Amino acid sequence: MTDEPTIDMDDDYDDITTPEEVLRKMTLMWQNELCAPCLLPSQMELVDILLDQIQGMEDDISRQRDKMQLRISLHRSELQRISFLTSDYVRCRLRKIEANPNNIPVPKPDHKNDMVYAKVLDDDVGNVTVTDWRDLNAELVLEMEKSSCHLIPFESVKPYVEEGKMQLL
Questions:
Q1: What is the C-alpha separation between 87 and 33, in angstroms, rounded?
Q2: Under a CB-based contact definition with an 8 Å cutoff, are residues 20 and 52 in contact?
Q3: CA–CA distance, 169 with 156 (Å, rounded to integer)
Q4: Are 50 and 23 a contacting pair, CB within 8 Å?
Q5: Measuring CA to CA, which residue among 139, 126, 91, 114 is closest to residue 37?
Q6: Would you call 153 exposed, middle or buried from its count of C-beta atoms within 10 A (0-12, 13-18, 19+)?
């Protein structure tokens, strides 16, 4: 297992300097949105940055003289992949909104029964408490070590997912 860098969701997007960083963060946002049982906080500023970078890369490719080069073809394929990721993130959010438009102004209060797979990305997550399914009045404390994966109630990890300390799988 490789150690993945932690991405702080609270960072100002102006601090993101390279297309690689923007893409890494967008990939994480896309995967979390796909796996989350509810609508996560919007990352449309990140989408706008990525769209601007895609446009710049397309302009660079269109200025190349030899359009048949393998390198140009590979760059176009990568741009199509990035465009799909961005579009699918927006489509996923729209599906969730269309499926439950009333939950957008008044969010569903809990997701205690929704289980998700989550991977710990950060060292300082600490311990997470979950309901003990054998005794519903008791709680279990789970130690969240970096790179560990857990099948866990979404409500227990939602704040960590939103902060970028955990990733939904």
A1: 12
A2: no
A3: 15
A4: yes
A5: 114
A6: buried
Predicted pLDDT of residue 101: 80
CATH 3.40.5.60 fits 115-168, yes or no: yes
Query: Where do you find CATH 3.40.5.60 in the chain?
Result: 115-168
Per DSSP, the three-state class of 123 is helix
What is the CATH topology of the domain spanning 19-99? Methane Monooxygenase Hydroxylase; Chain G, domain 1 (1.20.58)
Residue 3's pLDDT band (cuts 50, 70, 90): very low
d(CA 90, CA 146): 29
Query: Residues 118, 146: contact at Cβ < 8 Å?
Result: no
Three-state DSSP string of 92-109 = HHHHHHHHCHHHCCCCCC
pLDDT reading at 109 higher than 90: no
Where does CATH 1.20.58.1030 sit in the chain?
19-99
* Contact by Cβ (8 Å): 19, 81: no
Mean pLDDT of 115-124: 93
